[in-house]
Amino acid sequence: MAALRRIARERGGWWHAYVCPAHGVELDHGDVLGGVFPEGGARCSYGCRVDDEAVRGAWLVLSHQAWARHLRVLAHRGERVEAVARLVEYTALYEELATAQHGEAQGWMLRGRLFHQALTDAIWAVNIGHTVMTLAEHGTDDLSGMLPLLDSLERAALDARAVLIGKGQLASNYTAWLNAAGAATGRAAAAVRGQEWDGRKEWLEGDSGLYAHLRVAVAEDGWEWEGSTYYHGFVLRAALLALRGTDPAAVPADVRGVLAGMTDVLAAIATPGGILPALHDGPYLRDPLALEWLELVALAQQLVPSGALDTVAARARAELGAGDDGLDRELGGWFAGPPLPERPAPGALTLFGAAGYAVLRVAGIHALLDFGPHGGSHGHRDKLSLYLYGDTTPWQPDPGQVPYAHAEFRDLYASTEAHPAFRVDGSEQAECTGALLASDDRSVTAEVTTAYEGVRAVRRIVAGNGCLVDLLTVTATESRHITAQLRPGTALDVQVQAAGAARTTWYGDETLHGWHTHRAEAPVRPVTRPGPGTADDPQRTRTRVDFTADTDRVTFASVYQAASAGPAVTDVRLDGDGLTVCLADGSTARFRTED
Questions:
Q1: Average pLDDT for residues 149-171, to the nearest whole number?
Q2: Which residue among 270, 272, 333, 488 has its CA within the 20 to 30 Å range from the CA of 84?
Q3: Contact 263, 301 (CB under 8 A)
Q4: ω into 305 cis (within 30 of 0)
Q5: Distance separating alpha carbons of residues 47 and 49, to the nearest angstrom
Q6: How far is CA 535 from the centre of its chain?
């Protein structure tokens, strides 16, 4: 089969266009190393065949990126002849494109040469640079022909970075990858020439280099400024790739702290079974993303060892349905010195003040409260959303995002409607920021006052005895249509009781039980309806639940307990200024509501 593989001769487009217009699912990639767009059109899992200029351009992105990754693997495996032959082809192609008319690209993009986006060029260039570096470790006599390609890629990264810096966008995630591309291709070219690399000042240490970027792009709580799991990992991965051959001790102490803090973020939000919540605008499930997480973990473990990241890697391998493609071995010894000291494991509550996330762990439940800044272009209208996970079950996850070219589904998954948040009058929240009101080792309370004019919402989550307590109070200056939303990622049963709390049962690898009650001057209607599930497949339906009241003040109270926890909850009552939870062992616990 290897003889059938060929490199496509056309420039790539925008990978986000690789989506079914009817169903919103990413199309099947086919044989991306075959160099030929799927005959009859790209397949959708629902039977569609899609073939237009944008989809063909998107497939070419996937093909060229897969080839760059494959070349890096070939170099690691010692399959030098094929790796060099393909690099020669790419050198010629890239030179042809220097004078060819550039394809159409979105106006907001920094245009590339092989792809519409300079960012996509940079990601591709990083793997090309590392391929040549690996080959150069075993001789350079056959690599001099790659120098025009390497030099052109480094110049392109320098030019694109200058445009970003000129716009005042040092903190952009583009900057991280442009610096990584410049470092990788510059190091590779120096290795081929048999010279010491002299680009450290330009790409790592300078005013526009990687270290300067990390200092402004990452907040004091360790989160990349956009507050997105995907883009956080995106920037961290670029940084780790840029530091090949660097002794961690040689990195400035403050930057070492940034890199360790970014790694801590992933360890803290990951469930014990390795789920990384898709907070703010990342893919929910995607094979290339699983491969990216594997790569990041392999590198991060060499920088700051973390047992939590082992579970992330194991889950990514399971999602791929195959082995790790030798990543651990390929990336072994990436850094030139020993790793940084291992960091302490997160406790029951982890607060990220700048990003505005709280993670609370209790008796088989992994809960995240989102109260922070909108997140810029990658934010969602989801303030005070409460996400619920088991070790390996996404009971109520952030639903993630579809490929961006599908405008309708993209807007749906950024909406308040799609998240386990609150709504007023059936309308969307404004893009806004909440505030932390209080926290201790077992609870956190946050508010938002600018999601809707004249409305204040406060959400308090508490680790009880074997259960999680959720208290959401919404007040308005006049009677409004106020809704608290459940948005399951798994099958869900709902039972309204003749008296007492409504009950929910959430299924998956683990089972979650819920009790839901309220206090308001008006009736609260629990309405269920089918709605789109997570963004990996918008056609999959899940049972959504809206608890709604027409009032100027309402408290929605929920108690959640994993089936594996005990003693079992037997009853919940909301009265006076608090919630009473009754347990099977005869004990009770009282939780105050918002004043």
A1: 95
A2: 333
A3: no
A4: no
A5: 7
A6: 13
Q: Tell me the per-residue pLDDT of 453-491, one tens digit each, with 9 for 90 and over.
A: 999 999 999 999 999 999 999 999 999 999 999 999 999
Helix (H, G, I), strand (E, B) or coil at 193: helix
pLDDT higher than 90, residue 180:
yes
pLDDT digits (tens, 9 = 90+) for 45-70: 999 999 999 999 999 999 999 999 99
With tokens 């997140």, the residue in question is: 375
Q: What is the pLDDT of residues 416-434, one digit of tens each?
A: 999 999 999 999 999 999 9
Task: Decide: helix, strand or coil at residue 434.
Answer: coil
Q: What is the pLDDT of residue 493?
A: 97
Query: DSSP string of 523-539?
Result: --EEEEEEEE--TT-TT
Q: Which residue has the tokens 């590392």?
A: 130
Percent of the chain surpassing pLDDT 70: 97
Task: Pull the structure tokens for residue 383.
Answer: 């303030």
Cβ within 8 Å of residue 108, ≥6 positions away: none
Q: Is the dihedral of CA 316, 356, 391, 527 positive or negative?
A: negative
| DSSP string across 12-65 | P--GGG-B-TTT-PBPP---TTS-SPPTTSEEPTTS-EE--HHHHHHHHHHHHH
> How far is CA 463 from its chain centroid?
26
In angstroms, the CA 458 to CA 441 distance is: 19
3-state secondary structure 58-114: HHHHHHHHHHHHHHHHHHHHCCHHHHHHHHHHHHHHHHHHCCCCCCCCCCCCCECCC
Tokens of 181: 């591309």
Specify the residue for token string 């986000």. Answer: 16
Q: Looking only at Cα atoms, what is the longest distance across the chain?
A: 82
Mean pLDDT of the chain: 94
306: enclosing H helix or E strand: none
- Residue 283 near residue 230, CB atoms below 8 Å: yes
Q: How many Å apart are CA 74 and CA 84, to the nearest integer? A: 10
Sign, CA torsion 166/170/173/176: positive
Report CA-CA distances (Å) from 402 to 56, 97, 111, 387.
18, 31, 23, 19
**Helix, strand, or coil (residue 147):** helix
Q: Cα–Cα distance between 482 and 469 in angstroms, integer? A: 20
Q: Is 261 helix (H, G, I), strand (E, B) or coil?
A: helix
434 contacts 455 by C-beta, under 8 angstroms: no
Q: Both tokens of residue 29?
A: 């990639």
Single-letter amino acid, residue 459: R
Beta-sheet pairing, 385-389 with 422-424: unpaired
Q: How does DSSP classify residue 201?
A: I
**Encoded tokens for 342:** 């291992």
Cα distances (angstroms) measured from residue 385 to each of 338, 381, 416: 40, 9, 9
Give the CA count within 13 Å in the CB-facing half-sphere of 88: 10
SS3 breakdown of the chain: % helix, strand, coil, rounded to 5?
Answer: 35, 25, 40
